[in-house]
Protein 1
Amino acid sequence: MTYLLRITAKGVLTRIAAGEGTALSAAQAAALLDTDVTERLVLPVQPPEWTAGRLLCYLIDARGGDKALPANFLGTCFYHTGCPIFGDLLLAQCSAESRSDEVCGMSEADADALTAWLKAQFSAYLQE
């Protein structure tokens, strides 16, 4: 089983089962974020314990600002520009190839390592 991590705009962290190593379709990702279109962004840093061999990325509602969704503190921090990211986000793994929009879940060990790292970095913000 592989997993995605969801972080709501309110800072609630949950784990979502994502199947057995299969790629998440654009429609599946959009459904998980209750939108019609997502955008994939790559995290500028990864936890030292990350072993997936792929990049750590996050998916956002590409229309979150237009929908007046609340800002997501973690997403905004990950974005590194000062511009806010709106709504919930999903953390997944992705290919380093920029043309590929494929994302997939992570192993339980990587989900555990990522959860621990997020809690250490953002303990004042995250809830479970």
Protein 2
Amino acid sequence: MLPLNTPFWGLPCGVPRFWRLRVAKDFTKPKYYIGQTVVHWAKVKETEVFAHVDVLGISWTGIDWQYLVNLPENHPWFRANDEEWIWADSCDLKLP
């Protein structure tokens, strides 16, 4: 990822000035960042399951942030070669 202070002001790179403008002003900062370990809360048959997961990606849905997290092998939603990662809402994640 490029740092925000990268000098992209047109020529010699050929990148126009509008690339530096913000797309939207209503973005909130994400609570969690890529590489951070958080606790994932899940409800399975009236029992609550808490698991430590790592954030692999972040996505803005237009309303809120969603986080791509990896599931540990002991998580009830884990399926080998199928559901090793899920998109979780910020309300399902907590700091350890």
Protein 3
Amino acid sequence: MKGILLITIMLLSVAGFGTEIEKPAQTPTNKRTVIQQGASVKVEPEEVKAVSKQPQPDSGLLPKHDEPMITELQQIVMLLNDKLPGWNRGNNLNDKREKIIAAFVASLGLSLQYSAEKPQPPQINDKFKPLPLLWLQYDRIAYLRIDSFTPEVLLQFRQVHDILVTNYRLSGMIIDLRNGRSFDYKNTIKCLKLLADAYQAKPPTKVRIALLIGQRTLGAAEYFIHSLQPAVKPIIIGMQSAGQPFEYQVEKLTDGGYLLLPRVPETVGDKAIFTAQMPTIKITNNAQSDYGLQKKKPDVTVKYASNLLIALKATGGKPSGF
């Protein structure tokens, strides 16, 4: 019975997520204040929306369509106690509590996350100034580093669009997003459109694009990677990204954990529900060199991407999954 009681408490705690998500968000007439990981930020109402609805902390009831799920889980615990009496030996269930809740939240999709500790807001590169295009490998490879999708970066993508459309000798382009950390989706979407338009045009040859990603890649950069794949089919090189495509609204749970609710911009919509981006080609030595050194002595990932793009151009081959 202790096991049943424990799992019931855990499930009701988890079920509270469902209850909280049922309450509609209030929509003020003017600007609203969003609590983003402990910080108050003024946000225009037309720009950002919560992907889920706001908490209802005083309600202990589940929506009726969710009640069978709780009943069935309780039945599973009862059957385990009856058929496998040693299944919870050593209080194994309580030891796995955080993993169980985290797995439940992740299974719901919607880019939801659970954290046992209060998460800290990520550092973003809102002061990023665009860096000029570098021409590597005897001007056969164009290299562009993007740390944030600022309005100035949009001007660079107009230049990239023209280069891709009029290309006669370029073997490939590298877009380095290993330090891409911003939540500016309006400019990101405009940059994506410019690239998509370039690939819908009819240049003499198509230029393959390699995207460099890493553990510091988050936010709009992850959305950029996710959205570029259907139209351009880039080669993604490096390490798995951070897995935070959107800013989070943090809600404290009664047992001490935190539910992270993504704030999905209106310009993106529910079509972009995803988590971390995975590389096509994994490179563990993925440290990013200083920008000024890339032309004379590129880092391991840039050098690999350059050589790969040149080889693919020369042979007409395709890497796995390309």
